[in-house]
Amino acid sequence: MTSTAPPTARATPARRRRTPRDRGMNRAFRLVSTGSGALILAVLAAVAIFLVARAWPALTTPGAEIAQDVGWFPADASFLSFVGPLVFGTLLAAVLALVMAVPLSIGIALFISHYAPRRLATALGYAVDLLAAIPSVVYGLWGAMTLVGFVGPIWEWLASFLGWIPLFEGPAATPARVMLTAAVVLAVMILPIITAVCREVFLQTPKLHEEAALALGATRWEMIRTAVLPFARSGIVSGAMLGLGRALGETMAVLMILSPGFLYSFAILQAGQQQTIAANIAAQYADAAPIGVSTLIATGLALFVITMAVNMAARAIVARRKDFSGAN
Predict the structure, then answer these.
(1) Which of 100, 116, 244, 263 is the most buried (most CB within 10 A)?
(2) What is the pLDDT of residue 205?
(3) Which ranges in 133-228 belong to alpha helices (H)?
(4) Does residue 27 lie in a domain region?
């Protein structure tokens, strides 16, 4: 007759008793964290209050009185009729940049995360991140001195063969200081931001999901399409919205490239059609009278509202799909 020893209970490590010092550190950390979050809200509220207070004279003054002291303000125009074309130009430039940058960013991020050898992926990741460190004025100089001459013949070809499309309506301006050229520079500027976010989200895809797709006979592209991209959908949206926020507020690159105009026009190959809010503020602020400064700050308030709306929409999209993606 054999006897079996009773199973021994697994020893559980004893929990370390919290000391007064631990409780004090936890309380201090909680206070610092709460204070940091409250500080962000306070700064945001202070910016909003400043914009509203300084913009109020322009919002309550008739357009005819503003035009008497501000030479660049259209005569017989209200503030809304003045800021409308600026909002349109800002959104047009940002959307064009986003349309060009997002597909390219996703392709680069996929190449770095799933196709490139490790050494090449590391070097390419550093190169993409380095693009984000280049000042915007350098991009503006590159666009104004090099890109304008390079893309001129291309824009002329687009106007000749695709001029029946309103976006490419000709004649193309020479030199090419037009909205499409500015949008190309903006796309290059936001590309590293979107690429970095997408790359990190792609790398977070569970390996079991990828291996399961490959085990079922999927090719690498099919694995990416069925496992990686659905997992990273909200992350892609987050990166795109970050890039959109950067494009909306960009100043120097647009100021140095674009020939400004105050029209509601989709003709992105013609000069003197559109202008953005940020570039207009930079161009007019130095010589503006007090009421002119107030008018410029009022346009900045409009940009602030647009940026807030974009960020809130992005957070809503990410929060709606956070349980099914790697964005969070």
Answers:
(1) 244
(2) 86
(3) 136-142, 148-161, 179-203, 207-215, 220-223
(4) no
Mean pLDDT over each residue of the chain, to the nearest integer: 85
- The answer for residues whose C-beta is within 8 angstroms of residue 253's C-beta and 6 or more apart is 136, 137, 139, 140, 143, 182, 185, 186, 189
Q: Quick check: is 81 in a domain?
A: yes
For residue 272, being part of any structural domain is answered with: yes
Residue 311 Cα distances to 106, 176, 194, 244, 269, angstroms: 20, 32, 15, 9, 30
Q: Judge contact between 78 and 70, C-beta under 8 A.
A: no
Number of structural domains the chain divides into: 1
Region 196-215 average pLDDT: 88
pLDDT tens per residue across span 289-310: 888 889 899 999 999 999 888 8
Does the structure show a pLDDT above 80 at 180?
A: yes
Domain of 227 in residue numbering reads as 47-324
Residue with tokens 């130095």: 286
Is 237 within 8 Å of 318 (Cβ atoms)? yes
pTM for this entry: 0.85
Q: What is the mean pLDDT of residues 140-144?
A: 91
Tokens 């666009």 identify what position?
A: 143
Question: CB-based burial of residue 274 (10 Å sphere; 0-12 exposed, 13-18 middle, 19+ buried)?
Answer: buried
Domain harbouring 52, CATH code: 1.10.3720.10
Q: What are phi and psi of 275, to 5 degrees?
A: -155, 150
Q: Give the DSSP H/E element, type plus range, for residue 105.
A: helix 79-110
The pair phi, psi for residue 285, each rounded to 5°, is -65, -40
